[in-house]
Amino acid sequence: MFFRFGAAVCLVVLISLVGIAIEKQNLERRREISRQHYRMDVLKDEHARLRLRSQKLAAMERLVETIEKKGSDLKSPEKPAPSPPQHEGEQPRRPPLLFWERPVRDPRFDESSRSTPR
Amino acid sequence: MIAVVLGAWAILGLRLVHLQWYQADELTRLATRQSEVEVEVPARPADITDRNGKLLASTITTPSLFVDPKRLGATPEFISEIAAAVHLNPRELAARLDDYRDKRFMWVKRRLNDDEVDAVLKMKWPDGSYGLRDEFLRQYPQDSLAAHVLGLRDIDGSGKGGVEQSLDHLIRGVPGRRKLGKDARGRILEVEFSPEDEPRQFQAVQLTIDLAIQMFAERELDGIVKEWKPRAATAIVMDPQTGEVLAMASRPTYSPNNLRDVDEEAWKNQAINIVYEPGSTFKPVIVAWALQKDVVQRDEVFFCENGKFNMPGRTKPLTDVHGYGNLNVTDILVKSSNIGMAKIGMRMESLGLYEAAWRFGFGRPTGIELPGELRGIFHPLSSWTKASLGSIPMGAEISVTPLQLITAYAALSNGGRLIAPRILNGVQNDGSNRATTFAVSMEEPQLAQPAKIVTKAIDEEIADWVVNEPLTQVVRRGTGIKARIPGYTVFGKTGTAKKWDPKIGAYSETKNVASFIGGAPAHHPRVLVLVVVDEPKQARGFGGVIAAPPASRILQRTLTHLRVPPDQDARTAQAIDGLEEALILLE
Hints:
The structure holds 2 protein chains of 2 kinds. Chain A is mainly alpha-helical.
């Protein structure tokens, strides 16, 4: 009788422990989903910031003003941009496009590149 | 003993039934309130882009600082420390904290910059006395470009002026809700996401504005301001076939990113928020309607009284700048003869003139998607006098907005169809740079909006003749000669209207409005440009001198930008120009 009672109690405890473990796992998963959503929000915000900054840097009026005042401050790179590695079965390589770079940072636009601490 | 045990079990059973059956709802509600909290998630306002997807307005998040004044219990030293961290006046902050001393929430400063956030985080705050909450901050990457078209969003995110106000229902989106699960101590354990409760917003609202053309217009206005120092100026560029506004600029202007010390006049969108007497630019509208009604014939000749005409009903004689004898309808427009127009007006009578203005959309708003559009001043027929027959045909006694005028010219340029101008191209929600839908609201997206024809103003043949004959001649050999563009057949009309001076109760001899409206190519106009300069600092500030050259430059750059091919061979155009200049010299 005691054996049966003990077995029943053990079974109940076991089932409870399994239930708790599953519940904890479930909670952990949900937390992970929450974190992913949070990361998504942060990335969206970062995307908006970077897009805004790129549009500020490429603002037509600013570029035209720069060109009119002293000519473009864009300079060609010393060597072409490296082309991506080629894999089998891919189309033949095309010559890499030149990439253009700004020689100095423009302090007027640095303030918009900040990131908000969380 | 058994009875006691059974009784105890029965009581427990009954209590369970009571809890699970009768009190279930109430207890569930209490438990949910303790463990869950629902918060509103504001929708990120949609971006605003030009017709090519270039960003005009976007939104980022920035932290704002709030405090719980009751918990803060701040000493003067600590208040000074807070004020120094977020660059506020310590006295003002202390006064505000004093006002809020019994409250549990107070904004200290909204939209902090990075340095301010760092300084705030370094401070030693009493527990639970402060917090940083992310808020949306609207940014305008093109700065003052198209400022009047865009408007701005205030500190609470409400649209003020421009499309930010008029298209607020599309831009602001629909806020969502999120459930936060918390433990007994109130710490957030999880955030429940459900797709149907997420905030909904369009990716971007796309305007018909072309940023490059907008820049051409703005730069020309800057040049006008520098050279002529006017009270105000405006430029509009429109596609006359569709009514799409390609550019709309005003001076004075402001930067929506920096609203300190903005002049009151700078808030006005001079294209729709002011009215002026159009002067001679109104004449082609009258001529077109007179031809439509068969009141005059194209080859008819009018005697222009050698420059001085005592018109019945007028106390002062009507004059022209130069004295002319006989002029045909084309030359009346080319020479911009007020007397010739008065004679056409007398032929049309009041009703005809009234009908002409009404048919071309004057006296009522055009319906563009911008706030505060004026309807102009167009007096009822009953208040007209005999003198009105001479005044209205030369663009006096009627006040219009620049947008109304360019809309009327669009009707002349597109074969007589009066099209409602528009500035909204559509909304983007598929990640591409193309507007795929035109939406009335978030709930009712529709297919792209077609050009809206308001009315058929005049016959196509008459409209084509007015554009290809008199208006083209105005630019070839008339007052608009400075608007010529090599390779293109440009048409247009200059206007120089004296301003009414309420102080002297008469038209001012020193203040006027100089304007030019024109387009190209004349056989199938693709672009229309209007430049209006209000009170240029020049005693005889004629539209042909002040407004025509910048309008011509805007037109030329726009045609090149839109890759509209020239309609004249360069050498032929040069020969025609040479011949016409010789004819002008001979005259």
